[in-house]
């Protein structure tokens, strides 16, 4: 029986994916947020919309990630978090995150990003202080994990645009949802 | 949307570029008989047949039967796995990808190859019984799915592929 190919490392993955210019990416994202602010005007609405967009992206992104990176099923949430931080972030954003602050049961952890390509050249004006600029990232993680049967909740703890020293995202596993047989038995 | 032309596993329709490299060793076998792609909710996303002489059921029944078979078979194979210590009771639903997963079964007339991704996408390929291990081919198909279906902005996830 031929051996299955092992999962690739983060750098190999990053090299194997098509890349776009980082500034183009950053400026496009900035334009999206700017347009949402103009259209919706309420900062809370914009946050929700960014999260929803991220969720839709995440549900599709996870298939691409699984196909390219060849990881098998993670045994527990700790392994999942490691895979996201090292392979996932590296593959799609080109930066690695560190996983810290595990809670006692191992269901909640923090991803810390030292540099974040989405926020280059960005400053928040005083009128938008409640804006979670990187909310799309939390939506992506939530969407992706939901497609692999984990319901999670993602919040931002530290945000460099508000004066903190790094970006910290807290991910909490609510539950694992196993597959159910979708058809009713009576037909 | 046509993934393959003429039943050959290595050729991709000419207007689709670029495509991931075909795995070595697939040869020019005109071997694939039927292909199904299901998502985690049992929706049949894609069904293609190249050589199926006998139609026993109408399509919806056929899809349900196929999905139900694989669901139960996967559950069954991981419950009687002799190498893992921890097992739930029979009937407890499994997470996709958890436990051991079977990848083919063979009868005297056909061989059914199966692959499931952790996100619940199931690929089923029915071929001639003497075909070798098709896991690489199935992985190749999964890559194609990702490349052209998932990344297509006009495709709504969970609906059949046109």
Describe this structure in words.
- The complex is a heterodimer of chains A (187) and B (162).
- With 187 residues, chain A is α+β, with helices and mostly antiparallel strands.
- Chain A has a single domain, classed as 2-Layer Sandwich (Muramoyl-pentapeptide Carboxypeptidase, domain 2), CATH 3.30.1380.20.
- Chain A is 44% helix and 15% strand.
- Chain A is built from 5 helices and 4 strands.
- A 4-stranded antiparallel beta sheet of chain A has the order 1-2-4-3, with helices on one face.
- In chain A, β3 and β4 form a beta hairpin.
- In chain A, α1 packs parallel to α4 and α2 (22-40) runs antiparallel to α3.
- The longest helix of chain A has 27 residues, at 43-69.
- The model of chain A has no long low-confidence stretch (mean pLDDT 82).
- Chain B is of the alpha+beta class.
- Chain B has a domain at 32-80 and 96-150: Beta-Lactamase, CATH 3.30.450.70.
- Chain B is 23% helix and 16% strand.
- Chain B has a 5-stranded antiparallel beta sheet with strand order 2-1-5-4-3, with helices on one face.
- In chain B, β1 (34-38) and β2 (44-49) form a beta hairpin.
- Chains A and B meet through α3 of A and α1 and α2 of B.
- Chain B: Keywords: Endoplasmic reticulum, ER-Golgi transport, Golgi apparatus, Transport.
- Chain B: This is Trafficking protein particle complex subunit.
- Chain B: Belongs to the TRAPP small subunits family. BET5 subfamily.
- Chain B: Pfam families: Sybindin.
- Chain B: Its main location: endoplasmic reticulum.
- Chain A: One of its GO terms (biological process) is Golgi vesicle transport.
């Amino acid at each position: 029986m031929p051996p299955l190919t092992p999962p690739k490392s983060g750098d190999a993955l990053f090299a194997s994916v098509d890349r776009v210019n980082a500034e183009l990416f950053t400026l496009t994202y900035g334009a999206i947020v700017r347009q949402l602010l103009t259209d919706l005007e309420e900062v809370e609405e914009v946050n929700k919309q960014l999260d929803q967009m991220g969720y839709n992206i995440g549900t599709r992104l996870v298939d691409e990630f699984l196909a390219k990176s060849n990881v098998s099923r993670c045994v527990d949430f700790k392994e999942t978090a490691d895979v996201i931080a090292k392979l996932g972030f590296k593959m799609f954003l080109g930066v690695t995150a560190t996983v810290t602050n595990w809670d006692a049961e191992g269901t909640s952890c923090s991803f810390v990003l030292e540099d974040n390509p989405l926020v280059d050249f960005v400053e928040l004006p005083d009128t938008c202080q409640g804006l979670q600029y990187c909310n799309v990232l939390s939506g992506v993680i939530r969407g992706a994990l939901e497609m692999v049967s984990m319901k999670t909740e993602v919040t931002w703890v530290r945000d460099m645009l508000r004066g903190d020293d790094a970006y910290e995202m807290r991910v909490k596993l609510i539950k694992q949802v196993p597959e159910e047989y979708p058809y009713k038995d009576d037909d | 949307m046509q993934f393959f032309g003429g039943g050959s596993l290595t050729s991709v329709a000419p207007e689709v570029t670029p495509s991931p490299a075909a795995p070595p060793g697939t040869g020019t076998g005109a071997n694939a008989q039927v292909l199904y792609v299901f998502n985690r909710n049992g929706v049949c996303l894609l069904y293609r047949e190249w050589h199926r002489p006998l139609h026993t059921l109408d399509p919806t029944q056929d899809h349900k039967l196929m999905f139900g078979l694989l669901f139960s078979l996967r559950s069954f194979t991981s419950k009687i796995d002799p190498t893992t210590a921890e097992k739930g009771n029979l009937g407890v639903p499994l997470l996709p990808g958890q436990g051991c997963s079977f990848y083919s079964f063979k009868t005297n007339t056909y061989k059914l190859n199966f692959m499931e991704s952790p996100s619940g996408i199931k690929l089923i390929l029915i071929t001639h019984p003497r075909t070798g291990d098709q896991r690489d081919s199935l992985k190749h198909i999964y890559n194609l799915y990702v490349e052209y279906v998932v990344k297509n902005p006009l495709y709504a996830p969970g609906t059949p592929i046109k």
